[in-house]
Structure formats: C-alpha cells, structure tokens
Amino acid sequence: MKVDYHIHLEEGPYTHNYLEKITQSMEHFVPLPSKQYSKAWFAEVVAQAHRRMQETEYSEWWLNFYLERAKQRNLKMVGIVDHLYRFNETSDYFHTYMDTTSSEIGAIQADWLGCVMNRSLSEFVEFIEGQKAKWKANGIELKLGMEADYFIGGEEQLQALLQPYPFDYVIGSVHFYDGWGFDNPGLQTKFLDYDLLELYQNHFETVKRAAASNLFDIIAHLDNLKVFKHRPDEALLRDMYRSVAKTLKQADVATEMNPGLYYRYPVKEMCPSDTFLDILVAEGVPFTTSSDSHFPHDVGIYADQIQDKLKESGVKEIAVFDKRMRQMVPIHG
Ligand SMILES: [Zn+2]
Ligand SMILES: [Zn+2]
User: Fold this and answer.
1) Tell me: the pLDDT tens digits for 82-103?
2) Fewest C-beta in 10 Å: which of 58, 88, 113, 117?
3) Ligand 1 center from residue 71 Cα (angstroms)
4) Whose atoms come closest to the Cα of 175: which ligand?
C-alpha cells in the first residue's frame, strides 16, 4: 500500500525564503495567468500569499492541495503531522528541555521558538479529524498524527500533552542534542565542538530511550544527525545501528523511510542510510513510508523509489496505524 505518513502543513520561521517556497508550491496547483516575472504576475503571487495567510494552514482550501497531490501520486493513506513545537500548549515543555537561555545558542533558539510556536493543538486536531470523511470519499484514508520531540526526562510531561487527543499515531523525533537543535542551519558550527563518535553514541542512546519510552508508534529519521554531513566512517557506527535496531524491535516500535534529508539538506541522503537500513531489516524492525513534505507539491515525493528500495531490502509489509493500533499491510498492492 502506498502511504505517506509524515506530512507537515506549516512550519516557520517565516523567512523571505519561506514566502518563495509557499508561493512556488501553490503554483503547482493554481497556475498564475500572467506572464512570469511581469508586474501583473507578481501581483498575483502576492495575492496568493495573502490568501494563504487569510485561510491559514488549517483550512480545507490549503489541505485540498495536499489531497490533489495525494491523488496524483496514487497514495492510499496519508498522515498529517505537525511539529509539537508549533503549539502554544507545549511552551513549558520546550522551554524546559530546549536551550533557550544560554548566551551561546539559547537566545537564537528562543527567538526561533517564538517564531514557530503560534497555533493551538486542539485546533489542529479538530481540523484534521473534520477532514477525514471528505478524504475517504476521495478514496484516501487521512490519519491524524503528531511529530513530537523526545527529551530524556520529559517523558511524563510529553505523555500529559499527548494524552487528551485521538491521534492515529505519534512519531517520536530527536532533533536536539543537549538542548541544541542540531538540524538548525544557523547553528551547525556547533558540530565542531564535539567528538563526532561520542556525539553519535550519545544521540543514539537518546533515540533508544525514545523507542523504549512507550510514548511513540514510530521513531522518525533515525540517523538525522548526518544532516550537515558530519558523520564518522559508517563502519564505526555499525554496532550503534544494531543496538538501535534491537531496541526498536524489542520495544515493538516502527521506523520510517524518510527522504527529507535527501531532497532538502546538504547530506542528500535518505534516513536511514543503506547500511542502517540493512541492519534494521535484518533485525525485523517494522517500517512505514514518508515524504517529510512541508509543502503540498512534495506529498508522496519519492514514494515509488522508497517502496522499491524497501522491497529490494526484503521488506514485504509496512506499518499503518489507526487510533494507535498498528497493522501490517503488503508494501505493494
Ligand atoms: Zn523531524
Ligand atoms: Zn518532520
């Protein structure tokens, strides 16, 4: 079954670059009538951006672009997640576990959080739940997910944040190392402060704690620490990979094949790497498939290649979820 379980509706910060990406994405669905780069065309671009801000990301109008692409790419199941840090209800959690106070990176991260955290979790949940019937009528199952950051020590607080909502699944992610958001392009020089092998060892320990925490159905992009190409020789990581795989298997938690770093970041490689993938498959860890798209035109991107890659690695079934119950379905068919 062709599924995309990792799709975002919006994510700041709201840079000039973001404006460009969002208007470019809409042009895949609503071609503008005027000649490109003419003054009339530019006015149409601005009007599109304005409509997008008026309608907001939690509107049927915006989600319809996602539906259109999902149909074009023959997806049968689509899961929307937004990052937990988008939601005001989670302010305490992130201020506790992210570094938002140190003079070095704290001020930058506090600023970042202030930009990206601007919606309400209950509004997101209500919106997605309210769209499920329409998607079903269009032949696609829409799922309510969440991508939640895991922090060692924050388990109870996270549990309390997630507990009130009827999620179909929760993805656990590790985007932070000792409070530092290591996938933030503006903070990447911080990699130079660490011994890489130790950094990977500690990162994977956190990933294992996330897997064993009982909080998550899926652990996202297991080796995202490679985002800016800071990675030791993979031969030195094999034992760590195996240990992560065994922990996932034991905790009965799935992972995903995620192309986000392949098409959006310097490393240009999917998660997990080929070496890691082979180890995860050998250990019997269940997989789901995702795009990590942040814009509607990327929904289902590389879905065919990912299916083929998993199949070549020996994966026959993928994991799908309903109200946090996992089911394994044939990868093709
Ligand atoms: Zn992520
Ligand atoms: Zn994501």
Assistant:
1) 999 999 999 999 999 999 999 8
2) 88
3) 24
4) 1
The bound ligand whose nearest atom lies closest to the alpha carbon of 176 is 1
Q: What is the pTM of this model?
A: 0.96
In a domain, 155, yes or no: yes
From the CA of 258, how far away is ligand 2's center (Å)?
9
Residue 86 Cα to ligand 2 middle (Å): 12
Residue 78, domain member (yes or no) = yes
Report how far ligand 1's centroid is from the alpha carbon of 222 (Å).
10
CATH code of the domain in which 173 resides: 3.20.20.140
Domains in the chain: how many in total?
1
97 C-alpha vs ligand 1 centroid, how far in Å?
17
pLDDT at 104: 86
For residue 184, the model assigns a pLDDT of 94
Q: What range does the domain containing 90 cover? A: 3-14+57-330
Residue 230 lies in a domain: yes
3-state secondary structure 262-295: HHHCCCCCCECCHHHHHHHHHCCCCEEECCCECC
Closest-CA residue to 158 (of 99, 84, 80, 265): 84
Q: Of the bound ligands, which one is closest to the alpha carbon of residue 7?
A: 2
